[in-house]
Design a protein that fits this description.
The structure holds 2 protein chains of 2 kinds. Chain A is mainly alpha-helical. Chain A contains 12 helices and no strands. Chain A is elongated. The relative contact order of chain B is 0.12. Classes of the chains: A mainly alpha, B alpha/beta.
Chain lengths: 292, 367
């Protein structure tokens, strides 16, 4: 057996696993297709905003609160700004918030929970009581407080929501780590001489993500909602940056101009529900993974 | 450090090992309640031999193996590996020690990381101990797959693609990766199909001859133990009750518990199986949190009852004493080993195991 031949064999076999994973991630039901489709269309449009929409900050007071027209496809807001454009640019804020909240809260929560669960004993008890303190606040209250204290920028909104959410991931991962660390391949790894760091990062954690993956995808939607909630309450991203939640808040003052409130509301509904439907694919894929 | 020039024949020496676990929440071994999983055992493993550790579930055999692997810290006692006390070594030295003793676990479905390819599983010990370059490791994985009889294309697959027997081969390949001196196998075949067991056992014995390995094998299947071991230690409730060369033990068990164990082993002869007498032990194994005083086996001992409940059984723990017998060797912990020797129970057990039937109760038995 030469090394070269073995490498070729590995290469020949490895894509099989990748292909299996890709296969299991393909949408199958109508709702999954719908979800993936809406996400693809919306994200593409949001990314291509400068090409397909006018300046979202350009005010045109004479034509404020106008209905749909050739110039303004979705009409204009109270300052005469183009709603189509503001929806697309507002989507950028939402996607950034959704993704970065998840990355931040996920990274902190996973690390914290993994250490807590793996260490066990007193360390675990103390670390989990701290988590309990965070969890004892309603998460939106906590996010509001932090956001109010830090000031209304995208970065601060991300920090505020992530600060309220990481304890949930910490809890989740801790539970999985406690289960996985008792499995025999972890003991085996220890007996082979692996230290605690290697064991936790390379043996325990990769086997602890099953439930997390499912919740993670769904939570992108909820993070976007939370970002918009802060915006709606006036503690999110500050004007004039377009943001769906803040747009709804503004539109509330003009209840007779239905297109004003409908546009951001519908955008939020479409996007978050699409993420939910698409999230089902990940759930199924995790269940089908033979090595989970 | 030992100063002797000659290589000692002893590879592992376990001295008065005790492993107690705290019983219940919040308690510790110092504040009273504790499960005495292993309660003072002493034995050695000689270089190149296979030592069997047998006993019922809960007798402490797996705990003993874990302590030798230093997955558990002993409550008391010492474990010497090649003359070095494992409890005093530094972490660095322990890493070096671990290279020389490798485990094979019972359940190959749980002992392999499901998220790693077979190549990475087998290479894991090499990576942990920083052996060789990536391509050298890959080559070594190929060699090891060949050694344990798996096809080279197994390397890129994941454990779930393999059967139990194949998985155990993967586990053995992983254990062999660092060319260890000692392999500690905890029930290596009990999770496998009966038809596969012989293959794995043959593989283990081939490897032993080829690489001069020493085995510590834990099992409860007495037929298997007889086939693969050189010496056997019988454990009951955290203690060794008898430790003797395998054939000796099977031909002339000297502890009433060993006799009972042997009498319960199924034999592949329906007629003998139907006619032989079994010694059925009454009651359950006492709790290791509160073992009986005196001899631990006294609550269930058929011999004690037969001898009319001698007081010594409940007052004094019998020490592991050298067998004082014609030609027999080893140690046994019973106050009345000679009574076992003469009992019809022992003879019938022996008959059952050698496969010939009893024609007369007084028949002299072959040695």
């Amino acid at each position: 057996m030469t090394a070269g031949r073995l490498r070729r064999l590995e290469e020949a076999v490895a894509p099989t696993r990748f292909a299996t994973t890709m296969e299991s991630l393909r949408p199958r039901t109508f709702l999954e297709f719908y979800g993936v489709g809406v996400i693809v269309v919306m994200v593409t449009a949001i990314a291509a905003a400068p090409l397909i929409a006018p300046d979202p900050f350009a005010q045109d007071l004479p034509s404020a609160l106008a209905g749909s027209s050739a110039d303004h496809w979705l009409g204009t807001d109270n300052l005469g700004r183009d709603l189509w454009s503001r929806i697309l640019y507002g989507g950028r804020v939402s996607v950034v918030i959704g993704v970065f909240v998840l990355l931040t809260a996920g990274a902190v929560g996973v690390l914290y929970g993994a250490v807590s669960g793996y260490a066990g004993g007193m360390v675990d008890a103390v670390m989990m009581r701290i988590v309990d303190i965070f969890l004892s606040f309603p998460s939106i209250m906590l996010a509001l407080l932090i956001s109010a204290a830090l000031g209304p920028t995208i970065r601060n909104v991300i920090i505020a929501i992530a600060a309220a959410w990481w304890p949930v991931y910490a809890r989740l991962i801790r539970g999985q780590v406690i289960v996985v660390k008792e499995r025999e391949f972890v003991t085996a790894s220890r007996a082979l001489g692996a230290g605690p760091m290697r064991n936790l990062l390379w043996t325990v954690l990769p086997n602890s993500f099953g439930v997390m993956k499912t919740i993670f995808v769904l939570d992108i939607g909820y993070a976007i909602l939370a970002g918009s909630t802060l915006g709606f309450l006036g503690l999110g991203v500050s004007a004039p940056t377009p943001e769906w939640g803040y747009m709804i808040r503004e539109a509330l003052q003009y209840p007779t101009h239905w297109w004003f409130i409908l546009s951001p509301g519908l955008a939020l509904l479409l996007f978050v529900s699409a993420i939910n439907f698409a999230g089902g694919i990940v759930t199924r894929s995790v269940h089908e993974d033979p090595g989970r | 450090m030992s100063t002797e020039q000659v290589v000692s024949p002893v590879l592992v020496e376990v001295q008065d090992l005790r492993v107690w676990f705290p019983a219940g929440r919040g308690s510790s071994t110092k504040t009273g309640g504790s499960i005495k999983a292993v309660d003072g055992i002493t034995f050695t493993v000689q270089r190149g031999e296979t030592l069997g550790l047998v006993g019922e579930s809960g007798c402490g055999k797996t705990t003993t193996a874990r302590a030798v692997l230093k997955l558990l810290d002993p409550t008391e006692g010492r474990i010497l590996f090649d003359g070095v006390d494992l409890s005093t070594v530094s972490r660095r030295e322990l890493r070096l020690m671990r290279r020389r003793m490798q485990p094979v676990f019972q359940d190959p479905f749980s002992s392999l990381n499901p998220k790693r390819t077979v190549a990475r599983i087998i290479a894991e010990p090499l990576v942990i101990h920083r052996q060789g370059t990536a391509s050298e490791r890959r080559e070594r994985v190929g060699e090891l797959l060949d050694t344990v009889g798996l096809p080279p294309d197994a390397a890129g697959r994941y454990p779930h693609a393999f059967s139990g027997g194949q998985r155990q081969r993967i586990a053995i390949a992983r254990a062999m990766a660092l060319r260890p001196d000692l392999i500690i196998a905890d029930e290596p075949v009990s999770a496998l199909d009966v038809s596969i067991r012989a293959q794995i056992l043959n593989l283990l014995s081939d490897l032993q001859q080829e690489f001069h390995l020493t085995y510590l094998v834990i099992a409860h299947d007495l037929a298997l133990v007889r086939q693969v071991t050189d010496r056997v230690a019988v454990m009951y409730l955290g203690k060794i009750v008898e430790l003797r060369p395998t054939e000796d033990l099977y031909r002339r068990p000297l502890h009433p518990y060993t006799v009972a164990l042997l009498s319960s082993a199924p034999i592949p002869d329906t007629e003998a199986e139907a006619t032989r007498r079994r010694i059925v032990l009454e009651g359950d194994v006492p709790s290791p949190a509160d073992p009986p005083t005196g001899c631990r086996f006294n609550t269930r001992c058929w011999l004690r009852r037969k001898l009319g409940d001698p007081e010594i059984c409940t007052t004094q723990a019998p020490p592991l004493a050298q067998v004082q017998d014609h030609g027999a060797s080893g140690v046994v912990a019973c106050h009345f080993p000679e009574a076992v020797e003469d009992s019809p129970e022992r003879r019938e057990t022996l008959v059952a195991l050698t496969g010939s039937r009893v024609s007369s109760p007084d028949q002299e038995l072959p040695d």
